[in-house]
Amino acid sequence: MREIYFIKQNKEKWLGIEQVIEGKIKKNPDDLSSLYINLINDLSFAQTYYPKSNTTIYLNHLSSQIFQKIYKTKRVEENRIIYFFKTEVPLLVYEYRQYLLYAFLFFLLFTSIGVLSGIYDKDFVNIILGESYVNETIENIKKGNAVGVYQSGSTWGSTIGIIFNNIGVGAKLYMYGIFGGVGTLYALLSNSIMLGSFQYFFYDYGALKESARGIWLHGVFEIFSMVVEAMCGLILGASILFPKTFSRFNSFKNGFRNSFKIFLSTIPFTICAGIIEGYVTRHALKMPLIVNLIIIFSSLFIIGFYYFVYPSIVNRKINKHSHDAVL
């Protein structure tokens, strides 16, 4: 069958499924399952005869959306919040996984720019971090306390301030994506250059090891969350610039809804980072090195597994379940 005839034959059905996904048409779980099975058959046909076609890409996207709709409509015994973090967010992260890769590549590039700027311009770190902050840190390094800046203020007061500040930074990384993703990249550039020049500053003063023992206790959750928040901003920007088969407005609605859910998933990690920075980082150099390493690598494993590995596991599980349902 020629592709154009295949599209013409099924166009009305697919548009109807779009309306179901957007909530314009209500369907019960049984009807949704029938639509999904029918759509999977169309997708299988398209993958066989038009594997590199936009039709196949469109049907693959539509099938993932309708399957999520089934899961949301279906009565589940587990708590809604548990389902959100356990299934919904991982599926979205898997769907938009290329944006997570883009965000990490931009982060590494921008951080490298910060390092190189610190190497070739010794005054650069003063401009980025502020002269008073740099001078205070230099004095702390001379006293053998590279993370002394984290020891000021009360624990609970510092924690609250840090959490709200980090959530604000994350919100900017995300919401600036509305400017076609350019705003997100600018915010990521600013924060990444600051991080790169900051780390080189400690290296230049021979205190990189001591600083890393403290900074990365909370930095793993904080920086990784920042990159995921940038991913959300890029998704938001792409939904405006590249609507694909949807109208620009509907593409934006879908992009905003999905990216906002991923953004919300970073909040617990941001809160954990604030608690660690407020209560633990100030004791970093008094702790045995093994304890520092356990906290740092445990944090890296948890957040790395959740955003890089677990989404693939959930996707495979869902695909197996849907395949069994079709059979």
UniProtKB/TrEMBL annotation:
Chain segments annotated as coiled-coil in the UniProt record: none
UniProt KW keywords: Membrane, Transmembrane, Transmembrane helix
Pfam families: SpoIIM
Residues passing through the membrane, by range: 99-120, 173-195, 215-242, 262-281, 287-310
Cited InterPro entries: SpoIIM-like
Protein name: Stage II sporulation protein M
